[in-house]
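Note to self: user wants both folds in one dump. Writing first protein now.
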Amino acid sequence: MKFLLDFFPILLFFGAYKMGDIYTATAVLMGATVLQTAIIYKMDGKLQTMHKITLVLVLGFGALTLGLHDERFIKWKPTLLYAGLAIALAVAHGLLKKNFLHMLLGAQLQLPANVWHRLNLSWILYCVFMAAINGYVAHYFSTEDWVNFKLWGYAFPVVFILGQGLYISRYLPQDEDKTP
């Protein structure tokens, strides 16, 4: 359910763009993100930092897009988000000697320290890649192409997360079958 909830705003954004324009789609994305955040809060009783950051960026860049009637703001929002995440993970790792992924997920996943280290590095590289590819498409391609990329570009996070799941699955404690 939560996995589908993550795709809800982008699917509505894509549909609104196809039926209208980038400004209609931006307004729909803003509303859908507020609704998504409210649903997550109702389900969990709290919001993760990522949800809060996403909401602020969507509303902020969406307001700039609509207020200034300039599509560049909404197109560059993902680049800023991914670059910010990469920088935060890298600074925490390199300067603070902290692993934010382990801090956030360590209570749910029991993994060796070297696996947490590799996961952190892979997330940094993934975020750099996503920031770069969105920036490239936003800068060099039409808005139509960028919107299509936003929808079909969701293959990147799906593949990345599935890959992460496959990687960590071999390190998770196995339940022993205790039946004789």
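First done. Writing the second protein, which came from a different request thread.
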Amino acid sequence: MIAVVQRVLHSKVEVDSKVVGEIGKGVNILLGVEKEDSINDVKKLVDKIVNLRMFEDENGKMNFSLIDVNGEALVVSQFTLLANLKKGRRPSFENAANPDIAKELYQEFVKEISKFLKTQTGIFGADMKVFILNDGPVTFIINSKEL
């Protein structure tokens, strides 16, 4: 499971020109689910994200987590994070989980992170427009297989 975690001041996602999820200070999480992922990957990734010290203290040091700052999360499914670009010019998505399994693990991720943070989402599989007002910018790429 791969997550691109961006610290934001504001983020929203629209489907068919309607806002379906919107947050203030927190993180925008683009989430990709791989073939071999399981609930264990979900739990490791959620634990890392909610406890990662990515928010600055009064001295400008990253000493505060999402939990510490009462941050929010906007979770958006993005299978293109699993693209294999080694050969040719067309991405291969052979490493992405099939949509049924990916949706189930995406929903589990949302359920788990919601235990800690106010959480909004996009719509799995929809054509979404994501608006991100980066803070910093601060961006982390986290792979559950590396945790």
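Dump finished. Worth passing along: The chain has a mean pLDDT of 97.
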